[in-house]
């Protein structure tokens, strides 16, 4: 049976590093890595966070966010072709309506014909984010646009699931948010779908938020209101309600807990690789965290 695995790690919570180690293991270097001159000073990594492998041939590939060549071999359904023509102007209308400076919505609009070919959750999440806008959730037109677009995104994602099942393609993804938020709360999941979520506490929330600000070129560097930390933490951990399993950022990075690290490898079917290289992997995770702490200290952050 085709398997689907999705791991949700908050922005700044090491999704790229984890992808290289736990998802790709020995194939990580082929999928990208770190530019010593540009990325090393902030301890940033870049790895494909979507992995597809054929159950029959064991051939491994990645669609990536824009590397959609594999699914170019397939055709969209008639329903998707028809709905795409309807949805593009609605997305443009939504973007004008919200007027929030969101950088992801234009990417979704520009690539709307490809949304069924892979995981676009990094971009679709921003389509409906009203945290920093004055858009009213009671506005009938906004609710209409939101519902129609969510239904379309669900259609695209469900067609992706269908193609994977028909072509023996196991789909393993690391992203920031669960699909009930990034696509639609009405999304129908495939049979063998399992999810894993990263759990943060007060301290690790502050660490990951500041790291995300330092490493990202798109993040608005807002001062974190520590009085509002309980609500912010609840918001950051909201994906855990959706997840089948959880792992702790503190145990993985601050405590260097090998058993907790192993859970991530096992989630993607790579527990044997971990067991054969446990001491090396634990050392790599400790080194990654030590380097992150050094980045924080260099930026005068002492959390």
Written overview of the protein:
The protein is an alpha/beta fold and 303 residues long. It is built from 13 helices and 6 strands. It has helices at 15-23, 28-31, 78-98, 104-110, 121-124, 140-166, 179-182, 202-215, 229-236, 249-254, 258-267, 271-276, 278-298, and strands spanning 4-8, 50-54, 60-61, 169-175, 193-199, 245-248. It has a 6-stranded mixed beta sheet, with helices on both faces. The longest helix is centred in the middle third of the chain and has 27 residues, at 140-166. The termini are far apart. The mean pLDDT is 87.
Question: Helices, strands, pairings?
Answer:
Elements lengths: L3 E5 L6 H9 L4 H4 L18 E5 L5 E2 L16 H21 L5 H7 L10 H4 L15 H27 L2 E7 L3 H4 L10 E7 L2 H14 L13 H8 L8 E4 H6 L3 H10 L3 H6 L1 H21 L5
Parallel strand pairs: 1-4, 1-5, 5-6
Antiparallel strand pairs: 2-3, 2-4
In short:
With 303 residues, the protein is α/β, with parallel strands linked by helices. The protein has helices spanning 15-23, 28-31, 78-98, 104-110, 121-124, 140-166, 179-182, 202-215, 229-236, 249-254, 258-267, 271-276, 278-298; strands at 4-8, 50-54, 60-61, 169-175, 193-199, 245-248.
């Amino acid at each position: 049976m085709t398997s689907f695995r999705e791991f949700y790690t908050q922005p700044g919570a090491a999704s790229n590093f984890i992808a290289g180690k736990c998802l790709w293991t020995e194939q990580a270097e082929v999928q990208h890595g770190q530019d010593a001159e540009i990325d090393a000073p902030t301890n940033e990594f870049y790895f494909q966070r979507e992995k597809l492998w054929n159950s029959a041939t064991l051939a491994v590939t990645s669609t990536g966010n824009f590397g959609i060549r594999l699914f170019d071999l397939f055709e969209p359904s008639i329903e998707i072709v028809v709905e795409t023509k309807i949805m593009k102007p609605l997305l443009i209308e939504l973007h004008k309506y919200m007027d929030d400076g969101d950088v992801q919505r234009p990417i979704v609009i520009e690539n709307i014909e490809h949304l069924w070919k892979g995981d676009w959750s990094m971009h679709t999440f921003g389509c409906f984010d009203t945290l920093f806008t004055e858009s009213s959730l009671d506005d009938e037109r906004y609710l209409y646009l939101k519902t129609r677009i969510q239904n379309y995104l669900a259609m695209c994602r469900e067609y992706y699931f269908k193609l994977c099942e028909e072509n023996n393609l196991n789909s393993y993804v690391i992203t920031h948010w669960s699909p009930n938020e990034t696509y639609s709360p009405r999304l129908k999941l495939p049979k063998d779908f399992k999810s894993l979520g990263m759990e943060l506490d007060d301290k690790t929330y502050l660490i990951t938020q500041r790291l995300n600000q330092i490493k990202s070129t798109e993040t608005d560097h807002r001062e974190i209101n520590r009085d509002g930390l309980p609500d912010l933490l609840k918001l950051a951990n909201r994906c855990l309600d959706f997840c089948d399993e959880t792992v702790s950022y503190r145990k993985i990075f601050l405590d260097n807990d090998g058993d907790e690290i192993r859970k991530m490898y096992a989630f993607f079917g790579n527990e044997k690789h971990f067991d054969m290289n446990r001491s090396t992997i634990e050392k790599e995770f400790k080194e990654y965290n030590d380097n992150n702490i050094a980045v924080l200290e260099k930026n005068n952050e002492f959390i």
